[in-house]
Amino acid sequence: MIEGLECEGVRTAYSDSDSQGRTATYENWTVPSLGLMALVTASIPGSTYTGRIERLVRGEPDPALFAIPPDYAITELQDK
Predict the structure, then answer these.
(1) What φ, ψ does residue 52 adopt, rounded to 5°?
(2) Using CA of residue 65, residue 71, residue 74, residue 78, what is the dihedral sign?
(3) Per-residue b/e over 58-80, b at no fewer than 16 CB within 10 Å?
(4) Domain definitions of the chain by residue range
(5) Which tens digits make up the pLDDT trace of 22-42?
(6) CA separation (Å) from 43 to 9, 23, 26, 52?
(7) Of 50, 15, 52, 9, nearest in space to 32 by CA
(8) Residue 19 pLDDT more than 70?
(9) Which residue of 8, 22, 39, 79 has the fewest CB atoms within a 10 Å radius of its CB?
(10) What's the rounded Cα separation, in Å, for the pair 80 and 66?
């Protein structure tokens, strides 16, 4: 469960072929019912990246987000 959503995950580890024993990992957790990634982590020795969904609000978005601004204008370009 991530942010209250049931997730499925896969973790893959890649090992260096030399004797150093360095390992890189990639982890991906998805929400099948919504078709989105909830958590992704990529790690190499010395560096890690993490992306995570937060504060997901399910439902219709506010229509104001899609309204044309009142000062919007269409301007015709003129040939030179």
Answers:
(1) -145, 140
(2) negative
(3) eeeeeeeeeeeeeeeeeeeeeee
(4) 8-54
(5) 889 999 999 999 999 999 999
(6) 16, 8, 6, 15
(7) 9
(8) no
(9) 79
(10) 35
pLDDT band at 80 (very low <50, low <70, confident <90, very high): confident
Residue position matching structure tokens 């601004």? 69
Q: Give, rounded to a whole angstrom, the gap between the first and last alpha carbons of the chain.
A: 60
For residue 56, give both structure tokens: 């997901």
Q: What's the whole-model pTM score?
A: 0.64
- The two beta strands, 47-52 and 36-44, are antiparallel
